[in-house]
């Protein structure tokens, strides 16, 4: 196998498609959004990208059948006049800095072959604490793209996220801009500790408004409710631990 091997799985005609990138990252926000789109729409896997930068492993399905680790592009023909979607998702990112550049270049090659001229990279911004009100932050390759996003309540903050945008999400903007492709990064605020369906929904709501498609949120809302139960249990355990520590401190000062 070559360093990067692109398998042509199927052909699907897409009208004015935009690229939606949702690989694993903070809170799995981008991945949750991408998988939700693939599940809710009539999607079809059109390309698989294999690379020696991915972990040396295979996945095993419910029937015990294996498949080599890969990233996948799914084509989605959206109803109405909104642009069609080319959704990139997978379970892994590259293992080296050079690998990120090579893989992102390959991803852009695939996107360009479908006529994509705008890419949306999705991710999360860690806050270090549980989030109650979810804000979506943005970054763009062209200042002219900000107006539409700000109308959808996307915030642009100076020097945020701190340290910049890393991985494929960042390089889609950097390398995409060098190819003349418009690119936008949408980042949902999240604690950074847990998979965050609520933050993913906030990002998806912005994406829906900006691109113009409509999608059912029910399954994502169900996952958010399940995660809220987990968070509630964690908060309860933390509260009990704090009370225990306070009780221990009180005992130290007796006598």
Number of helices: 6
Tally the beta strands: 10
The CATH architecture would be 3-Layer(aba) Sandwich
Question: For the largest beta sheet, what order do the strands appear in spatially?
Answer: 1-3-6-7-2-8-10-9
Order of helices and strands: EEHEEEEEHEEHHEHH
Computed CA radius of gyration, to the nearest angstrom: 20 Å
- Extract low-pLDDT stretches: none
Share of helix, binned = 25-40%
User: Strand content of the residues, in percent?
Assistant: 15-25%
CATH class wording:
Alpha Beta
Overall, the morphology is globular
| Mean pLDDT value | 92
Q: Please summarize the sheet with the most strands.
A: 8 strands, mixed
- Total domain count: 1
Straight-line N-to-C gap: 74 Å
Structural class: alpha/beta
CATH-defined superfamily: PAC-like subunit
Features:
two-stranded antiparallel ribbon, single chain, 10 strands, 38% helix, alpha/beta, globular, 6 helices, 255 residues, Rossmann fold
Describe the structure concisely for a colleague:
The chain has 255 residues and is an alpha/beta fold. It has helices at 29-40, 97-113, 146-151, 167-178, 197-211, 218-252, and strands at 4-8, 18-22, 43-51, 58-60, 66-68, 71-76, 85-90, 118-126, 136-140, 182-190.
Structure write-up:
- The protein is α/β, with parallel strands linked by helices and 255 residues long.
- It has a single domain (4-216), classed as PAC-like subunit (Rossmann fold).
- The protein has helices spanning 29-40, 97-113, 146-151, 167-178, 197-211, 218-252, and strands spanning 4-8, 18-22, 43-51, 58-60, 66-68, 71-76, 85-90, 118-126, 136-140, 182-190.
- Helix 2 (97-113) crosses helix 4 (167-178) and helix 5 packs antiparallel against helix 6.
- InterPro entries: MJ1210-like, Proteasome_assmbl_chaperone_2, PSMG2_sf.
- It holds the Pfam family PAC2.
- This is Proteasome assembly chaperone family protein.
